[in-house]
Amino acid sequence: VQLQASGGGLVPVGGSLRLSCTASRRPFSRFVMAWFRRAPGKERREFVAAFRWNGGYSYYADSIKGRFTISRDNAQPMVYLEMNILKPEDTAVYYCAADERVITSATMRPESYEYWGQGTEVTVSS
Hints:
By secondary structure, the chain is mainly β. It has strands at residues 3-6, 9-12, 17-23, 32-38, 46-52, 58-60, 68-72, 78-83, 92-99, 115-116, 120-125.
């Protein structure tokens, strides 16, 4: 599966942005789709949100819970990350990821995902 993330940009504090992740084909129902981010100066990718394509579960990082929503397009192989009430600390390169073998307990680990998009940059200006 090839993934392509898009939708990043410059947004003021408190603003909103929607990221998109397009897959080369429709994920199988057992696929877990996720968003990670890498903040400036950080080496490790931080978990943001994930859900199983068939809707079995969804997870959110505590830092974005209540502000971000992960969802899918029912007609196309696309996943979205709706981001609201953006803060300066949300500034990062955002990556979408996917894998069909993710163990629920390891959903938040980047090592659990084989397929990655190229990243899209989000800058929240203060």
